[in-house]
Amino acid sequence: MDKGSYVLLIRVAKEAEVKTRGRSFNILPGYYCYIGSAFNSLSERVKRHLKKSKKRFWHIDYLLDIGEVLSVLLLPSSVKSEVKISSLFQKFGEAVDGFGASDCQISSNLYKISEEDYFRAIKSVHEYMGVFG
Question: Whole-prediction pTM value?
Answer without folding.
Answer: 0.91
